[in-house]
Design a protein that fits this description.
Layout: H1 6-9, E1 10-13, H2 19-29, E2 35-39, H3 40-56, E3 61-67, H4 71-82, E4 88-92, H5 97-108, E5 116-120, H6 128-133, H7 140-153, E6 158-160, H8 166-173, E7 178-181, H9 200-206, E8 210-213, H10 215-218, H11 223-237
Parallel strand pairs: 1-2, 1-8, 2-3, 3-4, 4-5, 5-6, 6-7, 7-8
The structure holds cytidine-5'-monophosphate.
Length: 239
């Protein structure tokens, strides 16, 4: 596994439809985190121009739009997003092998600037009765593993997974597969609505490459100190 610096391991989720709030955070956090994660909430309000403004503050961008459509449409969406020079983009693994391959092939068109493609397996909001309701057999854990294997076989760089899936996916999928992990809470931060959390140190030690951390940084009175404290905790755990 290539060495990733503690700062680069932090992907800060900026979940807001307010451009000024996002710009203020992006400005403060430039150089303090590995990327700013922008999702559907921000993108639907401010579009590609909003993303460019966050990048222009000096940040790499994790564009979390979770594409899920027919392969041709996903390829077209990724091709359009390549203009934004994002570092990471997401798709749904349940879009299937052809869609995942189309996503990777399209990302490769950017050559050296190729963004990493990371797939969402099972949304953590879905429990086993939700999975049964959409016709899925077996446990959520089995489905996560099935989709993670499919993701790797399709050439996708990694998956988004819960902290409690990290150790088993790392064992099953080897060291070169990226595990991007939300549900992270330092022991000094509020849990908010997150359940089954891990601290940054625990998740990094279990084998997470990148930690998606939002409110412990963005809602802190001092986002820069919060990000630095998290980077220090990661550094200690992966020594
Ligand atoms: O503020 P917080 O640290 O809880 O933010 C976590 C981020 O990770 C949010 O953008 C959330 O949507 C995302 N996420 C998550 N759990 C998942 C997948 C994504 O919390 N299973």
């Amino acid at each position: 596994m290539t060495e990733i610096s503690p700062i680069d391991r932090i992907f800060c989720a900026v979940d807001t439809p307010e451009l000024d709030d996002a710009l203020m955070l992006a400005d403060l956090l430039a150089g303090e985190v590995g990327a700013i994660k922008l999702g559907k909430e921000f993108f639907t309000a401010h579009g590609p121009d909003g993303v460019k403004r966050i990048a222009d503050c000096g940040n790499k961008i994790f564009l979390d739009l979770k594409f899920h459509d027919i392969p041709n449409t996903v390829a077209g969406s990724i091709r359009a997003a390549l203009r934004l020079n994002c570092a990471v983009m997401t798709v749904h693994a349940s879009g299937g092998p052809a869609m995942l391959k189309a996503a990777c092939d399209t990302a490769a068109e950017a050559g050296e600037k190729r963004p990493k493609i990371v797939a969402v397996t099972v949304l953590t909001s879905m429990d086993e009765s939700d999975l049964a309701a959409v016709g899925q057999q077996g446990s959520a854990a089995e489905q996560v593993l099935r989709l993670a294997r499919l993701t790797e076989a399709s050439g996708v760089d990694g998956v988004v997974c819960s902290p409690h899936e990290v150790a088993s996916l790392r064992r099953e999928l080897g060291d070169d597969f990226a595990l991007v992990v939300p549900g992270i809470r330092p022991d000094w931060a509020s849990e908010d609505d997150q359940k089954r959390i891990m601290t940054p140190a625990e998740a990094a030690a279990a084998g997470a490459n990148h930690l998606v951390i939002g409110r412990p940084i963005t809602r802190s009175d001092d986002p820069v100190s919060a990000a630095r404290r998290i980077a220090d905790e990661i550094a200690e755990s992966v020594l």
